[in-house]
Amino acid sequence: MSTVNSAASTIASTVAATTASSNAALQEAAQSIISGSTGNSSMDVSSLVSALVNAKIAGQAATIATSQSTDNTQISAYGTLSAALSALQASLGSLSDGTTVNAFSATTSGTGITATAATGAVAGTYSLDVAQIAKAQVLTSKGYGATTALASGSATMTLSVNGQSTTISLNGTNSTISGIASAINSASNNPGVTASVVNGADGAHLVLHATTTGSTNGISVAISDSATGDALNNLAVNTTSGTSLTGNASATSANLTANQSSIDNTSYWTQSTAAQDAYFTIDGTGVTSSSNTNTSALSGVTLSLSAASVDTTGSSPQTLTIAQNTSAQSSAINNFVTLYNTLVTTMGTLTSFSSTSSSQGVLLGDSTLNMIQNQLATIVATGVKNGSTTTSLASIGVTLGADGTLSIDNDTLNTALQNNQSTIATLFSSTNGVAEQLNTNIASYLSSTGVIATRTNALNADLTSLTTKQSNLTDYQTQLTSMYTSQFTALNTLMATMNNNQQYLTQLFGGTNSAGALATNKS
After folding, report:
1. For the packed helices 451-509 and 20-37, what is the interaxial angle rounded to 10 degrees?
2. Residue 450's Cα: distance from chain center in Å?
3. Tell me: the pLDDT tens digits for 417-438?
């Protein structure tokens, strides 16, 4: 009986060191021992073991769970911080590399010309007069019977454009007009010729289109056919380029004609469109271009010409205006301010503290976040230093508030954009401008060896360690459960034996206020 009471006493001492919920389970289990020892029932071994084991590991399990939750929450917070930093960095691209500072707009006064300006453009007004646009040559053969084979035996056709050529094999089975067109279109190393068939009243015509504009891209066709009487031989044609346009601002009719490419063998081919260059003048200087898209005439400016741009009289030039693109600059600067403020708000949430609710941000007091916050704030507050001169964002209407956010006065900004491009260029220089400084710092924070990655890696390492501890605790729980189950099962068996013995002795000797079997027999 003392063994049973000792076990109950041990459980009672364990109860004193556990939580309220564990207390209730242990007290219930202890009561089962007492009840079993008095013969009222058997002991609830399963509940007792579960309560004892849980009480033994509850503290360690709670500590591990809390640490895991804290680590995961902080990792997520660093992810939020990284996302806000990345968004700001993305907005800095055109400001940090000088693209926005050097942004220009291009407009023309007439129709038919599309102009765009980029880095390298120079603001100014130019007189632009288009005499002709670039065209691709089109040759049309005379009409032939649609089913007539132009080669009786083996022959070849070689097509050449601007030094590039391909040779196709023809014979009596594939030398109809449609067969030749198909062979040209499927030829390997095609130099830039597409073929089609036009069925006219006088027969099937082979039509060759150069795929590239320009006077040097005329089509030449060479035939090699041993059968001298074959009609295929008549398809040989050579294209020669005319003289490029030069001269005054307006091109004369003679100039235009001279620039057209010419062909031989006009008896069998008609040139419906000559291969020609575009010709236009900029402030009186003539420019020849093989393409209708020109990027070399004006530095940083792309000109795209269409037929509607041609000044047929030579007396109505258009005005091309290249100007600083202040709209793009304003948009980029406003976007930068918005995303910087988003970052500041995000960092404020992560480091917040409420005295009334006793709640706080996940990274309150975090040294990594505080360092990032202070460094970025210093950059936007300081601006750009060149020797003893400092140019601040405030000079263009962007000011830093007490809460760390930026505010922007668009009237002041627009005035600076219109009248003080040198200040804009200094503030957003690609070497030491505000955007470039921010971009460099953010890139270091977000790199694989940066402070955020270092802190996140440390947290992940701690999670790995906690997982190991959790696994070890689980193993300990299993061992403890097995040991307690064995011990208390044996105790339960002992108490059952003691109860049986007690009942037998009571029946034999009698108990309180009762006589046993021996006493009755003696009387």
Report:
1. 20
2. 21
3. 999 988 998 999 989 999 999 9
